[in-house]
Amino acid sequence: MTICVVLIVVGVGVLAVPAAGEGRVLVPISDGHGLSAIDAVGASLLALAATWLEVLVIRRLPHLALPPRAVFGLGLLAGLGIGIVIASVFSGFFWWWFVGAAALGVVTLVLVALTVSR
User: Fold this and answer.
1) If you write DSSP's letter for every residue of 1-47 in order, what string do you get?
2) Pairing state of beta strands 33-35 and 27-30?
3) Residue 107, CB half-sphere, CA atoms under 13 Å: how many?
């Protein structure tokens, strides 16, 4: 699990590089959004770490014995977070990606904390 956390921190650090230092946009997505080579590296690190972390949490989910309402609430918050991130990329909600990312971060932190403590 430590490796996942390190990969997430490094991925977020790579994605935090200012736009002036990223280089040219390789794949334009929408106005104000595009994928550069540095973004691709950061996104790949985050995708790898998040997938690995999700597998670890899902394997331990039955042992957490969360009530159905808690599982539903966490799933709903995660779904809203993903939806807001996607909507912010493809529409005019430019800075709303932060709200969606924060929602996903809360769900991740809660599940990881519960998984580690049990």
Assistant:
1) -HHHHHHHHHHHHHHTS-GGGT-S-SEEEETTEEE-HHHHHHHHHHH
2) antiparallel
3) 23
- Structure letter (DSSP) for residue 92: S
Provide the residue-wise pLDDT of the chain in tens; the chain has 118 residues.
788 889 988 988 888 888 777 778 777 776 666 778 888 888 899 899 988 888 888 888 888 888 999 999 999 999 999 999 888 877 777 778 889 889 988 998 898 888 888 7
Amino acid at 46: L
* Distance in angstroms (rounded) separating the CA atoms of residues 42 and 45: 5
Distance CA 106, CA 86 (A): 18
> Containing H/E element for 66?
none
Taking CB atoms within 8 Å and a gap of at least 24, the contacts of 27-33 are: 29/89, 29/90, 30/89, 30/90, 30/91, 32/94, 33/89
Q: Which position has the token pair 């670890």?
A: 56
Task: List Cα–Cα distances, 97 to 35, 88, 90, 92, 101, in angstroms.
Answer: 15, 5, 11, 11, 6
